[in-house]
Specification:
277 residues; single chain; alpha+beta; disordered N terminus; 12-stranded mixed sheet; disordered C terminus; two-stranded antiparallel ribbon; 43% strand; globular
């Protein structure tokens, strides 16, 4: 008899959680920041110039995004004021332009699929694919972000970074392990998060991924006007694998153009590296 009563209480508890989760919807605001480690092989670039360029780059990397979500779906998009075309930065004859991110990322955890509207060199693509699971490791650490109690999760993966080798005047690939740290809250029991990060038992409020930091600054739960989540529908339809191949090809072409244009009249090169060692 006690066993049946305990089973009933347990089932009622999980049923109540399910009903509560089904009603959850909200809008989370995230701010991004990126550590700029600026190194130059140009002996004529003094500390003042280097600091000026680093400060301008850091400002351009600081952007604001919104994540509109319900229990099963989410839509991650950059705020409109951040979508204006960035003006080139020029200092000491060096011009740098950091292009904006115009991705519109839709995720459906129930149907295990994503739709990502993005672009390469002003050409629109629509990535349609299944969700890639992240092998999160749940840690014991706890901290508060605003009014929410958050738990730590990490995952480690191998990444490939491209670095310009001034000795050989070529781009070289360097492989290294990267640890991504997430902080999620069980107070909002959905599997969503900013950018490509998802799959934890609560909403992800903070991400540290290499030089990139994403932090939630505001959450509005169950807004009175409700929310609207709609998949993007513009661009050439490709899978993630097809898009990655196109992106790599375009990147290789740009790097080749950079190597050719970086030579000065005296045959030397001016190289600026952002991040890395």
């Amino acid at each position: 008899m006690k066993t049946n009563k305990l089973l009933f209480i347990t089932l009622t508890f999980f049923f109540t959680i399910t009903l509560t989760a089904q009603k959850i919807q909200g809008i989370a605001t995230y701010k991004t920041d990126r550590k700029v480690d600026l190194k130059s092989d140009d002996s004529k670039m003094d500390d003042a110039m280097r600091e000026s360029i680093a400060a301008q780059l850091k400002k351009q990397f600081q952007r604001e995004y919104t994540l509109t979500f319900n229990t099963e779906e989410s839509l991650y998009i950059q705020e409109e004021e951040g979508l204006t075309a960035p003006s080139p930065m020029s200092s000491g004859g060096i011009t740098i332009t950091v292009s904006g991110n115009t991705d519109v990322l839709y995720r459906n955890t129930k149907e295990n699929r994503l739709v990502n509207q993005t672009e390469i060199m002003s050409k629109a693509f629509l990535i349609k694919d299944s969700l890639s699971a992240i092998d999160w490791k749940l840690e014991k650490e706890i901290k508060n972000i605003g009014e929410y109690t958050c738990f730590k999760a990490t995952y480690t993966r191998e990444v490939t970074e491209q670095t310009f080798d001034s000795a050989t005047n070529e781009m070289v690939e360097v492989k290294k392990d990267r640890v991504t740290t997430a902080w999620y809250t069980l107070d909002i029991p959905v599997q969503h998060g900013p950018a490509e990060f998802w799959g934890l038992p609560g909403l992800i409020l903070e991400i540290s991924d290499g030089d990139l930091t994403i932090l939630c600054s505001k959450i509005v739960l169950n807004p009175e006007k409700g929310i609207a989540i709609q998949e993007a529908d513009k661009g050439k339809v490709v899978t993630q694998e097809e898009f990655n191949a196109i992106q790599k090809k375009k990147t290789d072409e740009m790097m080749e153009q950079f190597q050719n244009s970086s030579r000065r009249n005296d045959g030397s090169t001016r190289v600026i590296r952002i991040g890395g060692s």
